[in-house]
Structures are given as C-alpha cells and as structure tokens.
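Record type: monomer structure entry
Structure origin: computed from sequence
Chain ID: A
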Amino acid sequence: PINLGLDQNNLEDNTAEQKYKCGLVVLEPNLQGEPILFPLDITGYVNGCGWNVVNGVAGSVQVFDGNGLPISNRVPLTIISESNLLNQPNVFRTNIKLTNNPTLRQGIIIFEASPQNGLAPGSFKMPIIFGQNSYAF
C-alpha cells in the first residue's frame, strides 16, 4: 500500500489491534513505477491526519499530463465502507476516465482532501507513467 499522509510523520496508534496508517492509503493499484492504464479503478482508505470524510466523500483525485494540463475530471473519493469506530479506516473506491489524451508518457495524479472548517484542503501529488493504451474515450 502507498501511504499518502498530509504530514510526513504518519502517526500510528500502537494500542490498535490492527495498525492502519494515518492519512490516505492507496491499496490498489500500485501507482509507483508501473505504467498506468485507464480507465483506472482506485481503492484505498482514509484515516485522519487531514483526510476525513465529508458527506460520504474523502476528497478527490484528478490526472494531469506532463505539461500540467488536466486530462481527467476531478473525481470524488466515494466512501464504500464508513466506520465510526476509533482506529478504523473509511474505505473508498473510485474510477477515473481520461477526458483528453496524455501529451507525454509521464504525468501526475493529485489526491486532494476535503476542505475542513473553511481551511484549504491538503493535497498529495504523485508522478505516474501512462500505459500505451491510456487514451480518452
């Protein structure tokens, strides 16, 4: 799993039976180093540290090409399994389709947390490589 916490300390609760990392964690697919094919299903969870659920959504995700131009819509990270228990993550699943073709082989995927108490949301940028069949439909 890839942990995308807003802060780099990524606190863990040592009293929990199962340890869930604090922040946003992408469980599937592996976004680092391997070419990404679209449409793309992303599954993961949020567990505090700036990543909280607001109205059933944990934030959003959007894909940009190597020139910084958006090539997908901003897609909500919709919660499919919400937990009110302490130390339990809120699981999300989403699907991203490209709206334009990538101009370069490299790009960026940006996860953005939901705003809280009027504060600007935090975000995490991850470089990605587009697979050969990644085209807008």
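Annotation 1: The radius of gyration is 15 Å.
Annotation 2: The CA atoms of residues 23 and 49 lie 5 Å apart.
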